[in-house]
Write a structure and sequence with these properties.
Layout (H helix, E strand, L loop, with lengths): L2 H34 L10 H45 L1
Helix pairs in contact: 1-2
Length: 92
């Protein structure tokens, strides 16, 4: 792959990541807003709403990190299994 092609690929990957993080942020905001914001006051959150939002964001981030760890672990196990199967089929 030449330098220009690599740069284009890197920029495309960066755009995908930005879109992914924007989507995740939007989902988190929607979920936490739905759960925590009970008043219609514009610009001011109550103490309970602030505390709920803080807890919600933290739980959302922790849960997302946990799920990512599980998926990465599962993906590694699948890769290892596939590699072992390929090695076994090559030995036959």
């Amino acid at each position: 792959m030449n330098s220009l092609t690599q740069q284009t690929t890197d920029k495309q990957e960066q755009k995908k990541l930005v879109k992914f993080f924007n989507l995740q942020f939007r989902k988190m905001m929607e979920q936490c807003h739905k759960k925590c914001i009970t008043t219609k006051n514009k610009g001011k959150l109550g103490i309970a709403e602030k505390a709920c939002t803080d807890r919600c964001v933290i739980k959302y981030i922790q849960t997302t990190a946990y799920v990512n760890e599980l998926l990465n672990s599962f993906s590694q196990e699948v890769d290892q299994t596939l590699q072992m199967q390929q090695q076994q089929s090559q030995q036959k």
